[in-house]
Amino acid sequence: MTETTIKSDIIKPENLVYKKTDLMTDKVLSYCPGCGHGTTHRIVMEVIEEMGLMEDTIGIAPVGCSVLAYEFMNVDMQQAAHGRAPALATAVKRLMPHKTVFTYQGDGDLAAIGTAETIHAANRGENITIIFINNGIYGMTGGQMAPTTLPGMKSSTSPYGRDLDMMGHPLKITELVAQLPGTHFVTRQAVHTPANVRKTKKAIRKAFELQQQKVGMTFIEVVSNCNSGWKMTPVQANQWMVENMFPFYPLGDIKVDGEILKNN
Q1: Among 189, 248, 250, 249, which Cα is nearest to 218's?
Q2: How far is CA 155 from CA 1, 144, 162, in A?
């Protein structure tokens, strides 16, 4: 038997453990090894493919590490100015209400320069889905302190740690938008383990299904690492995230069916 014959005999549908979704392009990801962006990209595209929304989805990618999402996500994409993705998504959804519209934003984008767009779109109950990657710093531009940087956390602009007296408190933007009447489903997840990936994928699917029901905004925070910005190996960054990020940004649903859960 030739090598080709052997491979074709092995690579059969019943033997495949995993197959890359056709909605991820073949372009090599530009994200740092160990970053959660690549995994989140993949499960967003898997959900769109599984729901049969390939031709009816529009993604909005602003500035930050997510700026090149259109090179990896094989669906219709539109780039937005820094922080303005919710405003652009609002326009797209109002013009084409039959489309599934999502933004893909980092914390420096969504919770800093884009705070106004985020809050007002949520308060209006725009029928879009926001996917928010929170790694606690500005990852793309040099690891500067962001609104989400933890107390005492070091960054390139807080080398001795975030001083609350001088720099203020971290902004829990997800809890904030959950308080607004226009949000219907708000959750915080992660993608550092297979179990967490499954939970996040389930949350993304639920958000897209709710968007089709026209119930208001759905909002998914994904707590991630930034091993390059944190100056750690990927393994160290994941461990640091579990020990430090999760206690401050606890995982789980915050608002379901328009009701804030009692433990939040």
Answers
A1: 189
A2: 58, 5, 8
Strand partners, 106: 133
pLDDT at residue 112 in the model = 92
Q: b/e map of 1-13 (b: 16 or more CB within 10 Å)?
A: eeeeeeeeeeeee
* Structure confidence at residue 188 (pLDDT): 98
User: pLDDT at residue 34 above 80?
Assistant: yes
What lies within 8 Å, CB to CB, of 69 at 6+ separation is 41, 59, 61, 77, 104
pTM tops 0.85: yes
pLDDT band at 11 (very low <50, low <70, confident <90, very high): low
Fold of 32-260: Rossmann fold (3.40.50)
Distance CA 183, CA 137 (A): 25
The token duo for 28 is: 């090599």
Map out the domains of the chain as residue ranges: 32-260
